[in-house]
Design brief:
The structure is a single chain. Helices cover 0% and strands 52% of the residues. It is mainly β. The chain has a single domain, classed as 7 Propeller (Methylamine Dehydrogenase, Chain H), CATH 2.130.10. The strands form 5 sheets. A 4-stranded antiparallel β-sheet has the order 3-4-5-6, with no helix packed on it. Strands 7-8-9-10 form a 4-stranded antiparallel β-sheet, with no helix packed on it. It has a 4-stranded antiparallel β-sheet with strand order 11-12-13-14, with no helix packed on it. Strand 9 and strand 10 form a beta hairpin.
């Protein structure tokens, strides 16, 4: 994702294969697209939302499949589990589940503040901009909160992306890195 376009590049030659216009009001697209099923899901905030594009012609071109304007993640991206994608909005301050193939919104829930999302062991780990870590059961039909706890150490905004490695959840908050055992 570039400032105004999503592009495909031939890795062998460096030649641009295709370009798909995706403009938001600040020209910032901080999220990594998610690829599966020969489709690329791209989301950004700042008034844009999400778009699903399908690779065609052996990956040498693309076509738009659908848009989900409500899922306008600025900092948290999405994860795909099974036939669904999960993530949070920005100006639309909800957590979403959408059907990967159609873009149909299965739920939107504002139980927690919006934020970043990762997945492991069939669970969603949501790090909210309010400083909570939430464990959510994967369920495309409802936001199924299993538990949560606050991040009390560190400084500034809760915008860093958490990571899970070797059964440990790592969360950075400003000048502090915390580690939580999440798998035995």
């Amino acid at each position: 994702m570039m400032q105004k376009h999503i592009i495909g590049i031939d890795v062998a030659t460096g030649k641009k294969l295709w370009s798909f216009e995706q403009i938001n009001r600040h020209g910032v697209h901080p999220n990594v697209p998610v690829y599966a099923d020969n489709m690329l899901f791209c989301t950004s905030g700042y008034g844009k939302g999400s778009v699903m594009i399908r690779l065609t012609n052996g990956g040498r071109s693309v076509e738009k499949v659908y848009e989900v304007t409500q899922l306008d993640s600025r900092i948290g991206a999405v994860v795909k589990i099974g036939s669904y994608a999960y993530g949070s909005g920005d100006s639309n301050r909800f957590w979403f589940s959408i059907d990967w193939q159609t873009g149909e919104i299965k739920y939107k829930d504002n139980t927690l503040g919006i934020g970043n999302i990762i997945t492991a062991d069939d669970m969603l780990y949501c790090y909210t901009e309010r400083g909570d870590i939430a464990l959510v059961r994967v369920n495309p039909d409802k936001f199924d909160l299993a538990g949560r706890f606050p991040i009390t150490l560190g400084t500034d905004q809760h915008w860093a992306h958490p990571a899970i490695y070797g059964g440990t959840l790592y969360v950075r908050h400003g000048n502090t890195l915390m580690a939580y055992k999440v798998n035995s």
